[in-house]
Design a protein that fits this description.
Layout: E1 3-10, E2 21-27, H1 31-42, E3 50-54, H2 60-65, E4 71-77, H3 84-92, E5 97-102, E6 105-107, H4 111-121, E7 125-134, E8 139-140, H5 142-148, E9 161-162, E10 171-174, H6 175-181, H7 194-203, E11 207-218, H8 228-243, H9 246-261, H10 267-283, H11 290-304
Parallel strand pairs: 2-3, 2-5, 3-4, 7-11
Antiparallel strand pairs: 1-4, 5-10, 6-11, 7-8, 7-10, 9-11
Helix pairs in contact: 6-7, 8-9, 8-10, 9-10
Amino acid sequence: MSTESATGLNRGAAGAGDARITVAVITRDRPASLLRTLDALAALPERPPVIVVDNSRDDSTRRAVRTHPALTRLLRPAANTGALGRNLAVRHARTPYVAFCDDDSWWEPGSLGRAADLLDGHPRLGLLAARTLVGDEAADDPLNAVLAESPLPSEPDLPGRPVLGFLGCASVVRREAFLDAGGFHPLLFFGGEETLLAYDLAAAGWGVVYEPALRARHLPETDGRTGRPFLVRRNHVLTTCLRRPWPVVLRAGTDLAAAAAAGRPGARRALKETLLRLPATLARRHTLPPHVEHAARLLDRQAAGRP
């Protein structure tokens, strides 16, 4: 994928910060929100280099942020890359660890340093999922409770609670592990893309854990964008088809067809898009190793028991 760096937007991080970790931010057409994120990142004691992948349709974001002191590099793909912009940022990072943000999220002071310390101390640790705090009131994202209650057993060489899921804008990866697992999958593009990466990290032998001492803030924008429920439904079935046994795939496909027949929001479009992507999905299908499939089944049972 060809990219271009705008003039003057490929500079080293100012000052002596934590040389272990880079922050990667993906954005699209929300310069005001991105500026708020960059302001928060500039105030961090870790003073990390920041790579922004700009998926915007015009030049307004570049003009808004080009002189911001937090920004180390701005990458401008030729087309909207969705979550794959994180892959692009990781390839350009020069630190062993990369923390992800969206243009409506940022990290609380000290969290990135703690994440780097944990990754330093646990060589098999591939990804850390943080506690996500939402809105001005810093309310717990519902996913926090799901991750904290993970039924997966503790592992002696990993910190935190083993999981097979995370929120993309509140995670830190070991660059080596991320690249080893292939990053975010191109078939999914965006929306519930995290589970497949967690599967692939675990299948490659890397640990994925939830560590609530790490805290990310999320202030979702209400800018009228639609389509996420459709994307999440579609990508759940595609992820299942890519990695899970056929009975699990059949159940997921049947559930989506039933939701479409019942007129659930986004379900008909999700079913159509799933069928269109099915040949490419089958061509890339390979199932999880037994120990990861066992963990996935434990999490299926957990999900079935929740409202």
